[in-house]
């Protein structure tokens, strides 16, 4: 048994004292909350007592409205206070369980030594004078993450503060009991990290506040760069750092930032649910989270059905390499590039003078305003006016035209016919309105009904005009693929590529490679609402963004600070990532941070995978011991199933809770699932899966991105399944494992296993 730390009783006493303080604070808050609750209930009950309702004269109506508003505001105010008290209570409850995880003794130059205790939130003493606990995001807490013993300094708004750290201590406290404590020197707690990483993988991600590493802290607290690029090897804590960074920003700018001001793009819904509890765990609300796919799909609207990136991926992994397939593959590559974006821009420039396809405004099956008339109006405007501004002007003109036609229509015969078909209720309404307006003859009543009927029909037409329904965006976009500019960068197969695309557009379907070009094009043509509410945008797994996609995002969020995190070695499909945003050059507002240390896998797993890391990045393993990866040979296909069953059973017996069979494609996943289902309890995960569960999971590698499992089994690590081109996929699959990796192959394992030195894995011939 390790020796007990001599200060443990003292530290436990402090914890007890803190818990007592928290109890007292909680009691006060409970009282306040109860009082407030009563207040709110009473206010709701008597809401109308204090409101003066008088609708006789217009002035009375205005007064009544003001009186209701005032009463409602009072109620809302009380409810907001109630909400923040509840939040405070929640935080106190968490602190009671685990008040802090670190302590540093810091002597600021010229001041007394101070003991700084660091936890997930701040806590003041009774007098509200001294900090009993500092929030991990407070400026002084950065000392804990950035320095060993000795001289140290930190930044405050007022400038740099220097001094000396004489003690750095870590605690594991659970339910108010000190489980362990260590004094550390250089890095933050290998012991604590060992503890955190030695456990089973979880179905939801954990926060890492207690053990944030210095390099990660740089990412979390970065404030100066407009664009922060983080390249980190698999398992280096990029996602963890991204989430801690969001929590940091929400604290640092708590007066200015709402959760709506921060947006996170994650790779898929499964991943979104995997990371969903980190921010609430830290006492922060979840920010806006979406996948890029959902984001652009909304912008496409009803114009097209949209292929998902996963369907595209599945296609890329399973296509038969026919001529048609080859052309599409070239198209996928070209349409991801900035060269294609330039081509779209060149085409857009031609539309200033001619070429936009319009739709006529129709009314009762007849053309009211022809598409030629709209085009004429559009193209007689100054060509220096931007396309979206001209669209607005056309819409204004059309609305005016419609209003005057609307007035003419009122007296037409068809309106009389419609009126006859109206029901009693519509009649009653018109009658009431007519009376209100002082009308008393039947004629007046009919005039009102006529107006109402025409107004209703024109209202929906006007709404369509405001939505630019008079522009045929799809057809105009289609013309892009019939456009053959003299561009040096146009690929040889452009004509075939274009013909394939036109076919899809005409059947109202957009393939994933055309989706971003389409929404970009639509935005340039009609105007895209630049999202100014997003102040910080975080993109995880940014290596899978194409240059075109990133350029689009950058234009859409022109004033937003961005953090891009990813691993160039885990790109799903390398050609798309040639101009990967992670490879952008450093500049005045661009900063790059590289993470080399991998925390997820054991040392043995890193020693194996480092032989076939796709890029040049060196990987430093975190010193955690485990078993060597296993390669199991099968010489007959029928053996594979038995081997898989046996391995799953062994891993379960070892106590592993998440065992993933990671395949190259969904097609392979389905195949394995069909073989195992009924014999082993297992779950097939596809893009429709929104939550991760424990047990045996079968998942294609592109969906497993960013997620980790206790054990990974690669059911077919054979040469024919993973060819030379599949390096990033195979690497990504292997690096999902925290503790164990098992690969099954026939006589010829893939080239990557062959590249690994024999001593780094255990081969087992069946
Ligand atoms: N400082 C840390 N303290 C404790 N655990 C950490 C730390 N950094 C990373 N980890 C753990 O390492 C694992 C990998 O972290 P994470 O998923 O954030 O890495 P990643 O770089 O996003 O990985 P990948 O690129 O492979 O998806 C997680 O279990 C995470 O909790």
UniProtKB/TrEMBL annotation:
InterPro entries assigned: DNA_helicase_UvrD/REP, HelD_bacillota, P-loop_NTPase, UvrD-like_ATP-bd, UvrD-like_helicase_C
Domain of life of the organism encoding this protein: Bacteria
Gene3D superfamilies per UniProt: P-loop containing nucleotide triphosphate hydrolases
Record carries keyword Heme: no
Chain residues that bind ATP: 232-239
Annotated ranges, domain UvrD-like helicase ATP-binding: 211-602
Coiled coil: 8-39
NCBIfam families: HelD_BACSU
Protein name: RNA polymerase recycling motor HelD
Organism: Virgibacillus dokdonensis
Gene (UniProt): helD
């Amino acid at each position: 048994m390790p020796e007990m730390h001599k200060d443990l009783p003292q530290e436990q006493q402090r914890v007890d004292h803190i818990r007592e303080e928290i109890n007292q604070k909680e009691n006060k808050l409970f009282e306040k909350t109860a009082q407030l609750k009563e207040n709110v209930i009473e206010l709701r009950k008597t809401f109308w007592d204090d409101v003066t309702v008088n609708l006789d004269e217009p002035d009375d109506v205005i007064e009544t409205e003001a009186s209701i508003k005032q009463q409602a505001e009072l109620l809302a105010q009380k409810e907001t206070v109630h909400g923040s008290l509840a939040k405070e209570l929640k935080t106190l409850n968490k602190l009671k369980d685990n008040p802090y995880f670190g302590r540093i003794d810091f002597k600021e130059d010229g001041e007394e030594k101070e003991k700084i205790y660091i936890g997930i939130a701040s806590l003041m003493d009774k007098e509200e004078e001294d900090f009993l606990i500092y929030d991990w995001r407070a400026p002084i807490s950065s000392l804990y993450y950035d320095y060993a013993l000795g001289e140290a300094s930190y930044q405050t708004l007022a400038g740099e503060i220097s001094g000396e750290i004489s003690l750095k201590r870590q605690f594991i406290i659970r339910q108010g009991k000190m489980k362990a404590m260590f004094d550390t020197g250089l890095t933050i707690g290998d012991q604590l990290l060992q503890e955190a990483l030695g456990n089973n993988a979880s179905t939801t991600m954990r926060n890492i506040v207690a053990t944030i590493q210095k390099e990660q802290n740089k990412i979390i607290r970065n404030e100066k760069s407009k664009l922060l690029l983080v390249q980190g090897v698999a398992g280096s804590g990029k996602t963890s750092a991204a989430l801690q960074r969001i929590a940091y920003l929400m604290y640092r700018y708590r007066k200015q930032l709402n959760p709506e001001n921060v947006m996170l793009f994650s790779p898929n819904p499964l991943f979104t649910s995997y990371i969903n509890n980190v921010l609430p765990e830290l006492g922060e609300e979840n920010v806006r989270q979406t996948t890029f796919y959902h984001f652009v799909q909304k912008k496409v609207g009803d114009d097209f059905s949209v292929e998902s990136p996963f369907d595209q991926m599945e296609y890329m992994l399973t296509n038969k390499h026919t001529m048609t397939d080859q052309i599409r593959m070239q198209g996928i590559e070209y349409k991801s590039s900035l060269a294609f974006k330039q081509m779209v821009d060149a085409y857009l420039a031609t539309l200033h003078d001619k070429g936009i396809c319009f739709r006529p405004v129709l009314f009762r099956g007849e053309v009211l305003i022809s598409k030629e008339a709209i085009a004429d109006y559009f193209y007689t405007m100054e060509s220096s006016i931007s396309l979206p501004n001209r669209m607005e002007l056309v819409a204004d003109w059309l609305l005016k035209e419609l209003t005057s036609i609307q007035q003419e229509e009122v007296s037409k015969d068809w309106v009389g016919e419609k009126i006859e078909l109206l029901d009693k209720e519509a009649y009653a309404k018109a009658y009431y309105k007519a009376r209100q307006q002082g009308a008393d003859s039947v004629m007046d009543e009919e005039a009102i009904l006529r107006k109402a009927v025409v107004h209703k029909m024109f209202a929906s037409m006007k709404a369509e005009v405001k939505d630019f329904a008079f522009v045929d965006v799809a057809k105009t976009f289609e013309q892009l693929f019939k456009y053959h500019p003299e561009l040096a960068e146009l690929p040889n197969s452009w004509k075939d590529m274009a013909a394939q695309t036109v076919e899809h557009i005409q059947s109202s379907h957009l393939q994933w490679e055309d989706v971003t070009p389409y929404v970009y094009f639509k935005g340039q043509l009609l105007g895209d609402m630049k999202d100014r509410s997003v102040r910080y945008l975080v993109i995880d797994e940014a290596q899978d963004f194409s240059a075109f996609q990133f350029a689009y995002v950058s234009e859409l969020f022109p004033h937003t600070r961005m953090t891009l995190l990813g691993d160039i070695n885990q790109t799903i499909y390398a050609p798309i990532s040639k101009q990967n945003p992670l490879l952008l050059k450093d500049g005045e507002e661009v900063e790059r941070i590289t993470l080399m240390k991998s925390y997820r896998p054991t040392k043995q797993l890193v020693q194996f995978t480092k032989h076939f890391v796709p890029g040049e990045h060196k990987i430093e393993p975190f010193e955690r011991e485990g078993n060597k990866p296993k390669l199991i040979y099968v010489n007959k296909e029928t053996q594979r199933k038995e081997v898989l069953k046996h391995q799953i059973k062994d891993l379960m017996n070892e106590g592993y809770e998440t065992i993933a069979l990671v395949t190259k494609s969904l097609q392979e996943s389905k195949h394995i699932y069909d073989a195992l289902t009924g014999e082993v309890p297992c779950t097939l995960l596809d893009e429709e899966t929104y939550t991760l569960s424990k047990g045996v999971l079968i998942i294609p590698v592109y969906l497993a991105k960013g997620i980790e499992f206790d054990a990974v089994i690669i059911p077919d690590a054979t040469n024919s399944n993973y060819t030379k081109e599949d390096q990033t996929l195979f690497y990504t699959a292997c690096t999902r494992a925290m503790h164990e990796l098992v690969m099954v192959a026939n006589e010829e394992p893939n080239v990557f296993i062959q590249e690994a030195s024999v001593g780094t894995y255990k081969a087992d011939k069946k």
